Amino acid sequence: xxxxxxxxxxxxxxxxxxxxxxxxxxxxxxxxxxxxxxxxxxxxxxxxxxxxxxxxxxxxxxxxxxxxxxxxxxxxxxxxxxxxxxxxxxxxxxxxxxxxxxxxxxxxxxxxxxxxxxxxxxxxxxxxxxxxxxxxxxxxxxxxxxxxxxxxxxxxxxxxxxxxxxxxxxxxxxxxxxxxxxxxxxxxxxxxxxxxxxxxxxxxxxxxxxxxxxxxxxxxxxxxxxxxxxxxxxxxxxxxxxxxxxxxxxxxxxxxxxxxxxxxxxxxxxxxxxxxxxxxxxxxxxxxxxxxxxxxxxxxxxxxxxxxxxxxxxxxxxxxxxxxxxxxxxxxxxxxxxxxxxxxxxxxxxxxxxxxxxxxxxxxxxxxxxxxxxxxxxxxxxxxxxxxxxxxxxxxxxxxxxxxxxxxxxxxxxxxxxxxxxxxxxxxxxxxxxxxxxxxxxxxxxxxxxxxxxxxxxxxxxxxxxxxxxxxxxxxxxxxxxxxxxxxxxxxxxxxxxxxxxxxxxxxxxxxxxxxxxxxxxxxxxxxxxxxxxxxxxxxxxxxxxxxxxxxxxxxxxxxxxxxxxxxxxxxxxxxxxxxxxxxxxxxxxxxxxxxxxxxxxxxxxxxxxxxxxxxxxxxxxxxxxxxxxxxxxxxxxxxxxxxxxxxxxxxxxxxxxxxxxxxxxxxxxxxxxxxxxxxxxxxxxxxxxxxxxxxxxxxxxxxxxxxxxxxxxxxxxxxxxxxxxxxxxxxx
Length: 733
Prior knowledge:
alpha+beta; about 40% helix; 16 strands; Protein FAR1-RELATED SEQUENCE 5 isoform X5; five-stranded antiparallel β-sheet; MULE_transposase_dom; seven-stranded mixed β-sheet; FAR1_DNA_bnd_dom
């Protein structure tokens, strides 16, 4: 580190500056970060000194003013600014295909070097910034810090993408694990992998179902981050069973959602032996229990009667919709060349997405059936019976977060395409899945960082409603909102009713026959449009925005800004579980406890990489622990409750080998009971003694004894989550 010096021997070289600049990104700003008076040997070293300082603090730099000695090209002084210095000049946005973020905030932080006899000395320094600084985990994304030091380019042990100074998060992270897992049997490798993940991640969940021969039939898993993501974005769930990508020909079924950047987010994944109602019921119950028994508002699936039956049982209050992308894919296989007929496609797409009311749909459907004589076609008749699950005439008021749109549906349906092939083992697939999830989260992380760096450039500079939207919404959602606002300009309107504060308008898009009815309450700022775009997507439509313009509203009412689309979508993780009843039963206690664990874990994640934040975290946790002890003593509860006493393990486990799954075609369709299903008969004495025994070092163990899968009913599931070595009370049938 450069220091305050006045003599030549103390001057630091470029290599010294670069060496200190490659320090860990979590290093905190110390007393020696006052650059005033520090000296280096050259202009390059001056830049490196300030850039290293900027990397430690959390901002990017750019070159500023240069002054020369009179009558020469020799530099007299050089300034370097924070990259957010000044303000962006107005520019013509109409011709620009790519609009960059407006990151300038008028920041005054800078440093000035003077060149005296070949020594570059800091003569002016302002460390004050007027914007948020980058977190330690974000510093590698700063523009002036994007480089990979040679000393780290070939270090496979570096943990995390932030430590190595470049964006790709999952580079070589799983190589060693993949090499070590394939030495034993596939099932044992899978269980060992799940156990190791559970040891690393206290919120990791998995459950395995085996048949009477102790062969794995179905399994589901998700990591702790997926649980936190589900708390924020679990209102919409896409469930796809059209993929088979492993050597056992099992059905691969990912649970996918959409985050605040309109990107795919993974909530978990399952492998299933068959597509029976029983198997889907087991899977949905396992998923629901892993997510704190909070069902989604909407679930989108492919057309499968067994899935529909299971959803009615497990998610009775969830709206079930069929994925339109899967329906369009199925048409070609059902009608062959007819699917390429332009008129047929027009009529079918009109039934799919072009009808506003049920009567319009019925007329269009009858025309389609009669014109092409497909009234006796079994697939079309079955599709008609479930029309309320796929036609916009019946589903336009269902919130889907845009997943049902063609562009989103295709990306969601193809989320696992190319991940593996028909010779991929279960363990290798799970590892490949982890890489895919890491890549998704890296993309989300990058978008979060871009949103923090500045607001989107607005096409209407003076628009108050666009200014609010650019500050609140993420970049992707802002663009969708901006399209709607610009679309409102191309609409005409007629006011039908105006009574006190209630107003009714007809709004028509130019060049279209579509007419929408908009009702507006000027007192409460409540608005309703017959197109129901806000109900389905969560963003106001052009018709509603047109009425806002007529009534001179320059801000989006708070009730029409969904938190899930904002930059603060993940702020505050307490959510729906924070208001527990005063007197809770065992199930409520466990739900509340796990909710608190997730909240604390989220705070700890934020403190990573910052010494001061870690110290604050430790301090507050110690204070919290002391206050809890004092409260317990005040209430005279007696001795502290020992949660581990009732579930302590003694003795040795009776080990039963878990076998790899048979190929799907070789197994019967008999019903398999899983860990989440309660046993109807009393367990045998041998089973009870095995459940109380301690884990042994045998290589393969029965899931109900040693898998640590949290695969019981809700209370047992949460209990085993907290104490992974506790015996399970039910056994696989």
